[in-house]
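Look at one record.

>
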Amino acid sequence: MDKLNWGMVGGGKGSQIGPAHRLGALTDGNFAFVAGALDHDPEAGRAYAQDLGIAPDRAYGDWREMLAGEAARADRIDLVTVATPNATHYEIAKGFLEAGFHVLCEKPMTMTVEEGEDIVRTASAAGKICAVNYGYSGYALVRHMRAMVARGDLGAVRLVVAAFSHGHHADAADADNPRVRWRYDPAQAGASAQFADCGIHALHMASFVTGQEVTRLSADFASTLPSRVLEDDAMVNFRMDGGAVGRLWTSSVAIGRQHGLEIQVFGEKGGLRWAQEQPNQLFWTPLNGRTEVMERGGPGLSPEADRASRVTVGHAEGMPLAFANIYVDLAEVIRAQKADRTPDPAALHYPKAQDGLRSMAAVHGAVASARDQGVWVDARPPMFR
């Protein structure tokens, strides 16, 4: 099977997220990395792209040059990943979509709800994929949780408790560190810092696992370092359209927490618990029963989990392979579109522009709620009300 052509904007040398995308995209042999505009410094970007094996004529200085260059080629890229600073996501994703390219955009997809709605409409009009990298939804046992909820193992879901907390921004001495400072600068990060950066991963996972969407929320934001304009800790209560109650905590000043993405789902007939730092184990407790530890790669899991499991049971499976599952989904859908066939239904669970839009509506709703002492607000984007 011929490989699909893949390109990347951003994710250059020193990038935190770029290597994970390259590992994820190239793991299964579905994509060839053929084009890139990898750095805000044009010459540095061109040089690094060539270091990674990209031909000189496809090592671009910026995204506009890449867009023009790829649009003119018969062997143009099939998918572009946007891994640039938050404030640039909208214009880059929109530009590539309008030119007829499939897009995988880092989160947050946009800075405003209006931009998010425009991306949803643009992708629909172009007939192209716009996926958003909520990559943790690619973990095998997260997909098994979703399957268990969908087939009714838990009964009606009553409560979802999610968290994404770490302590890597707790040192006041780092206040002027440029790798930290931008995250709390409204001009670069937008209306929210910690909730928009990490909290929306937990919020998306709550919706992904339960199959329910957030309708209303109430938020409390705190800037525990006085120099910060935006929040470094947030607590969000929410309600979902299927009746579930939600609780979410996210923090960047929780010293001792390393990654801290975890989710618990409690239903009429049982409860589930999973943490990203121990991704090989899922804890299942049936009502009035004993807790069972399900092992990734073990017997008796769902087809969704088996499809997403990459290494034999007992071995560590990490973030790049979760990202790889998103890329496997996208490759299947792109190939199906090229062949004018129906894609494998299991490939349709990748996070979409609609998810990115819902996240941005939740961010702005949470900001408004926090400013108004936690008043409950509508968390839905206007086009979905």
Observations:
- The two ends are 43 Å apart (CA to CA).
- The first strand starts at residue 4 and ends at 10.
